[in-house]
Amino acid sequence: MTAPFPTPVADEEQRLLSPDELEAALRDIGARRYHNLHPFHRLLHDGKLDKDQVRAWALNRYYYQAMIPVKDAAVLARMQDAQLRRIWRQRIVDHDGDAPGDGGIERWLKLAEGVGFSRDYVLSTKGILSATKFSVDAYVHFVSEKPLLEAIASSLTEMFSPTIISERVAGMLKNYDFITKDTLAYFEKRLTQAPRDADFALDYVKQHATTPELQRKAMAALTFKCNVLWTQLDALYFAYVAPGMMPPDAWQPGEGLVAEKAAAAGGKNGPFEPADVPRLPRGVRLRFDEVRSNHVLLAPERTFDLDDNAVAVLKLVDGKRSVGDIAGELAAIYAADRSLIEADIGVMLAELAQKRVLER
Amino acid sequence: MNAPTPAPVAAEVIPAPVGLLAELTHRCPLRCPYCSNPMELDRRSAELDTATWLRVLTEASKLGVLHVHLSGGEPTARNDIVEITAKCAELGLYSNLITSGVGGALQKLDALYDAGLDHVQLSVQGVDAANAEKIGGLKNAQPQKMTFAARVTELGLPLTLNSVIHRGNIHEVPGFIDLAVKLGAKRLEVAHTQYYGWAYVNRASLMPNKAQVDESIRIVEAARERLKGELVIDLVVPDYYAKYPKACAGGWGRKLMNVTPQGKVLPCHAAETIPGLEFWYVNDHSLSEIWTQSPAFNAYRGTSWMKEPCRSCDRREKDWGGCRCQALALAGDAAATDPACSLSPLHGKMRELATEEAADNPPDYIYRTIGSNVQSPLKEKAPL
């Protein structure tokens, strides 16, 4: 049918949404546009990228991480209310830490170092794709220029991040032997920080988007932010996956890396293999603490509090069972996938071994 | 009606202690000028008997203690050290022997192993034998220590080397690291001197300068990376050059109890330097009563005793205001902010003092001795 005039805007699109409808609409944006859907992330999480492609991701994403506190400071600078600022400033603390060596940016640097980069190279931001910088800078400009409601709404991608983080951590640990749990420490923190931040921002938006127009602007802001994230992955895909067109100044495999001694040390410090037989050396004891009703691992000058998973594993560590045996028993008890458990406890045991409270 | 008194601390909100420092004796063949024992040392005749120690350990276990640090003085100077260790094993307490490795230590080591000893922490005063023996004040100590360490690892016991760092051995930090690896230690403590007790008296002889301290930290950090999975290195940085203080003993009355040779129970080993505190004895009260009710443990527990800048500081439950004994010694008030904290008004003076002392020629050591009448050569007799 041919319509001589533009389709009239339906009343539905100008209606004031209830707070719950607004939340549903915002979540729907994430369900359709969040970057967990991007082909690059699918490759990353499924173990389809090679080490250099993972490196390119870690390096470029550093620029985003490093600018987050700058973005949040810009948001903060526009808040007239001390109570709001007190809440928002926690984001800056989370990223910058209270001292050198602390905070989210530092943990991202650890991740970049974990995949082989020299810290100084990452800090220099040389080699980061221009497209990454353009899109991140656009985000900082956005929050500085738009009304506060939109600035806050643009942060709402945090609502969707716990899903992607769980997928990412599990996928990367399973699929890349050069990735350890230590390397991914950044995400562990974000699992608790992001929902806290998102809850606050979501409440704020639901409370302050009081007209249809403001609600549409909040939704547009979130869409914009999804695009900031999406575009970065487009650029990575284009330069490092297909067609592989690397801009002249971009990082090239081999650049900015430290000599690969970590790989050589892998035998000693790497995850436990299914055939490895772990044992607690003399001077390390698993004990039930009756006063506090929990299990602890007692070791020279320190006590390790253990979560239930660690207790279940350590109870089976007897110097006879291999990692494979232990995974098998746990898989039977918890009706879980044995190979996943093997990978998981291989990493956990390696962490204890690095602290010199476990041997193989 | 009444003058306001501090609210009593309810027993159920006080978390149980995790560690017991059992100072079994003050007797020691070494005479280190930074010894953490008090200036007035207990004599042998005043020491608790075996039965009392065994009772104290039982009470500690019931109270929730997990680690027992068998210390002194030299703990192997006690004839009942094996019996005491066996009691720890029986109770499931983790036993840690903190020893100089000299005197009778080697002779008793195998029996201690059989009794179920969990861990040995061996002090090393230096790497170069002559230097080490000058610091420890005992000739021929170094070869004894090396033989002792070799036997510890031969038995399969985990070994930690503890090196107290000061201007007389700070150049040996790389050597300590190599020595720990060579001896098969799993842990090394590079512990910069804490200036209480004998170390306070000898501060001018011990204080390194800032550049030396920074260099030592750099060396440790590099070694940690290099020796990952082989050697764990714990670093204790010196207060005088720090930005924030350390939580003394993990916070006053929070983690640790310290029983002296004569049975006095302290929140930290230097607590007796604070006048007016009432300490209880294991002969008069159970450990549980002492932990929850004794005036000394409640005096600086928690945060309600704090003054500014601690009271409103968001680090107040991280470092618990730092060290009360150092606050008393340097600020003249045990409830003041530890001057090691950069937020203390006295912090600048404290650092100046350290810088000046480190620049001067070091005076001779005043060695630790039982029954001495010591005069400190420090310029300030009164607080800063």
UniProtKB/TrEMBL annotation, chain A:
Monomer. Interacts with PqqE. It comes from Methylobacterium haplocladii. Its EC number is 1.3.3.11. Residues 24-234 form the Thiaminase-2/PQQC domain. Keywords: Oxidoreductase, PQQ biosynthesis. Gene3D superfamilies: Coenzyme PQQ synthesis protein D (PqqD), Heme oxygenase-like. Transmembrane segments: none annotated. This is Pyrroloquinoline-quinone synthase. It catalyses: 6-(2-amino-2-carboxyethyl)-7,8-dioxo-1,2,3,4,7,8-hexahydroquinoline-2,4-dicarboxylate + 3 O2 = pyrroloquinoline quinone + 2 H2O2 + 2 H2O + H(+). Pathway: Cofactor biosynthesis; pyrroloquinoline quinone biosynthesis. GO terms for biological process: pyrroloquinoline quinone biosynthetic process. Ring cyclization and eight-electron oxidation of 3a-(2-amino-2-carboxyethyl)-4,5-dioxo-4,5,6,7,8,9-hexahydroquinoline-7,9-dicarboxylic-acid to PQQ. It holds the Pfam family TENA_THI-4. The keyword Glycoprotein does not apply. CDD domains: TenA_PqqC (cd19370). Belongs to the PqqC family. GO terms for molecular function: pyrroloquinoline-quinone synthase activity; quinone binding. InterPro entries: Haem_Oase-like_multi-hlx, PqqC, PqqC-like, PQQD, PqqD_bac, PqqD_sf, Thiaminase-2/PQQC. Coiled coil: none annotated.
Automatic annotation (TrEMBL), chain B:
Transmembrane segments: none annotated. GO terms for biological process: pyrroloquinoline quinone biosynthetic process. It comes from the Bacteria. Its EC number is 1.21.98.4. It catalyses: [PQQ precursor protein] + S-adenosyl-L-methionine = E-Y cross-linked-[PQQ precursor protein] + 5'-deoxyadenosine + L-methionine + H(+). Gene3D superfamilies: Aldolase class I. It holds the Pfam family Radical_SAM. Pathway: Cofactor biosynthesis; pyrroloquinoline quinone biosynthesis. One of its GO terms (molecular function) is oxidoreductase activity. InterPro entries: 4Fe4S-binding_SPASM_dom, Aldolase_TIM, MoaA_NifB_PqqE_Fe-S-bd_CS, PQQ_synth_PqqE_bac, PqqE-like, Radical_SAM_PqqE_MftC-like, rSAM, rSAM_sf. Its cofactor is [4Fe-4S] cluster. The keyword 4Fe-4S applies. Keywords: 4Fe-4S, Iron, Iron-sulfur, Metal-binding, Oxidoreductase, PQQ biosynthesis, S-adenosyl-L-methionine. Residues 14-226 form the Radical SAM core domain. Binds 1 [4Fe-4S] cluster. The cluster is coordinated with 3 cysteines and an exchangeable S-adenosyl-L-methionine. [4Fe-4S] cluster binds at residues 28, 32, 35. The keyword Repeat does not apply. It is an enzyme of class 1 (oxidoreductase). Catalyzes the cross-linking of a glutamate residue and a tyrosine residue in the PqqA protein as part of the biosynthesis of pyrroloquinoline quinone (PQQ). Interacts with PqqD. The interaction is necessary for activity of PqqE. Belongs to the radical SAM superfamily. PqqE family. This is PqqA peptide cyclase. It comes from Methylobacterium haplocladii. The gene is pqqE.
